[in-house]
Design goal:
Elements lengths: L11 H4 L7 E9 L1 H12 L9 E7 L8 E9 L10 H4 L1 E6 L10 H8 L4 E9 L3 H9 L10 E2 L5 E8 L11 E7 L3 H10 L1 H4 L4 H15 L8 H11 L9 H19 L7
Parallel strand pairs: 1-4, 5-8
Antiparallel strand pairs: 1-5, 2-3, 3-4, 6-7, 7-8
The structure holds fe (ii) ion.
């Protein structure tokens, strides 16, 4: 028996839909080029990753005749290959490592992200895995969350994914931190449904390059999509900023979710925005 009175909150699993039972799928680490090869060696030695655990390694020739540079690799750590093969993809942990491979003369959002943090290493995004990406995506859109891509099919992996806007507050610079949401092993019906839904974007570049180009475009334009639009962020702040964290009650949270839904509704139908 503990003295601390823990509030009898209902078990989350009681009301949380299955698609919100996220698991970490992978994370993406941005590294200064000086750390890139060393990190590879560390993953191959200390973390015990074999050649077969290097899931991909992508290269690019940024300038013709200058030769290829490695942009990124992904390493699987912690996969339990000894147990049943079936759900192996769901038990593994993956780290994707990215260096700014562009020549010094060429801009790079990865370099910007690292320099913006005065850091030679930065965790960029964490990919959360859901059992129903379509349901989650819909749910998030209905609450005003911004995504920089529709749901995409990875060309190399049996995986569908979407990327959120970055976490930063109005007026602050982009943080370089965002979320990816993924679903592994999507069934053929779902794939067909998604394919019909976003015809133009479906056959994009392989997704890593698709995301890479999207982020580069954002950083060059100076307009980085935030997780929440400034107006929605400020709306939430208007009621929550003056409170201590422990003063934020259920009533406030219901209000916040309501505001998010209302904001998303209005944004979707700007013509009915009267009043
Ligand atoms: Fe990712």
């Amino acid at each position: 028996m503990t003295q601390t009175a823990t509030a009898q909150t209902p078990s989350p699993s009681g009301h949380r839909p299955a698609f919100l039972n996220f698991q970490v799928d992978h994370m993406t680490l941005l590294l200064d080029p000086k750390m890139y090869n060393v990190s590879y060696a560390i993953f191959r030695t200390l973390f015990g990753a074999g050649q077969e655990d290097i899931l991909y390694e992508k290269r690019k020739e940024w300038a013709k005749g200058k030769g290829e540079t490695s942009m990124t690799f992904a390493v699987r750590i912690g996969a339990d290959q000894a147990s049943a093969q079936q759900a192996a993809a769901l038990r593994q942990t993956i780290v994707a490592v990215v260096q700014p491979s562009e020549p010094e003369s060429q801009p790079s959002h990865v370099r910007d992200m690292l320099e913006g943090h005065s850091a030679s290493a930065h965790w960029q995004h964490i990919a959360l895995r859901t059992s129903d990406l379509l349901a989650f995506h819909q749910y998030a859109l209905q609450r005003g969350i911004n995504f920089i891509t529709p749901i995409l099919k990875d060309a190399d992996e049996d995986l569908i994914q979407t990327f959120s806007g970055e976490w930063f507050f109005p007026g602050a610079g982009p943080s370089g931190l965002f979320f990816e949401f993924v679903q592994r092993n999507p069934n053929p019906n779902l794939l067909k449904k998604l394919e019909e839904r976003n015809k133009e974007t479906w056959f994009r570049d392989r997704t890593f390059l698709g995301l890479y180009a999207e982020k580069e475009k954002e950083y060059r334009s100076g307009t980085v999509t935030p997780f929440l639009d400034p107006r929605l962020f400020e709306k939430l702040q208007s009621r929550l900023a003056s409170k201590k964290l422990w003063e934020i009650g259920e009533e406030d949270l219901r209000w916040a979710e309501g505001e998010m839904q209302e904001y998303a509704r209005r944004k979707k139908q700007p013509s009915t925005q009267e009043g």
